[in-house]
Design a protein that fits this description.
single chain, Rossmann fold, two-stranded antiparallel sheet, 12 helices, globular
Length: about 260
């Protein structure tokens, strides 16, 4: 669902909202939920997402057809400055989703969790219940299930009809799954949240606040897990910035000619 705030980075969609505007959109999606309407789809675009979408046409279309796609990470912010299309606010899922949960707690919205390893999910549920004591957490399911169990899992979710479904099974699997089942899913809004449960559970640590404020959380994550983050930090980010600069140079030259 493209809108006047939609911008594109290397062709991949981002909806350029501030936090308050994004929350208002999410609240509207929940409050306007209708039985005959597909579940709303909310994703996050970062450098890795863009890298995947440029190589996978199906994933590219999945992002393009979402109801809301929020900017995630300092790489998107830097690209916005290079292209003179500044990103209003970094709405990465790890910071944005606790605010959504606080809103859900306030308005009585129900929440269901899907994803992560069983032991990580258990700790995540425990922490959420401690930190959001009034939140209506009505169910959860780990992400390590066989494909033949998917029908049963959909039935479990549809039985409780959550207002908010958080899917944490990694990109692009989570976004493609949400897109494939949204017509049969009785949930108000589905969020693709990546590693959120790992952070909420304490499995992974967040960077100190000053690093997050300076846009340097990627350094912290790389130091903590260099093997997993090597391709993203050493290959994908430099390539993304170079392509963005070439895009800016090309368009500047084109408009001057």
């Amino acid at each position: 669902m493209l809108n006047s705030k939609t911008v594109h980075f290397l062709g991949v969609r981002v909806d350029n909202y501030r936090l308050r505007e994004a929350l208002a959109r999410v609240k509207f999606f929940i409050d306007s939920k209708q039985p005959e309407r597909s579940s709303r789809k909310v994703y996050f675009t970062n450098v890795h997402t863009i890298h995947l979408a440029r190589r996978d046409p199906q994933f590219f279309c999945t992002i393009h057809n979402a109801d809301l796609v929020l900017p995630d990470g300092s790489g998107i912010d830097l690209a916005g400055r290079i292209l003179k299309r500044p990103v209003k606010e970094n709405l990465n899922g790890t910071d944005f989703m606790p605010v959504v949960l606080r809103m859900a707690e306030r308005y009585g919205y129900t929440v269901y969790l899907l994803g992560a390893r069983p032991e990580v999910l258990e700790r995540c549920v425990e922490r959420i219940q401690n930190d959001f004591s009034d939140l209506k957490l009505i169910g959860y399911q780990h992400g390590y299930y066989h494909q033949q169990e998917e029908g049963r899992i959909l039935e479990k979710i549809n039985r409780v009809r959550p207002d908010i479904l958080l899917v944490a099974t990694g990109s692009p699997r989570q976004e493609k799954w949400i897109a494939s089942v949204s017509d049969h899913l009785e949930a108000g809004v589905c969020f693709a949240v990546g590693g959120l449960f790992d952070f909420l559970s304490g499995e992974f640590s967040r960077a100190p606040y000053w690093m997050r404020k300076a846009g340097l959380e990627w350094v912290h994550r790389f130091v903590k897990n260099p093997r997993e983050k090597w391709n993203r930090i050493v290959i994908e980010i430099p390539l993304f910035i170079w392509l963005t600069m070439m895009n800016r140079l090309f368009h500047s030259s084109f408009h001057q000619s």
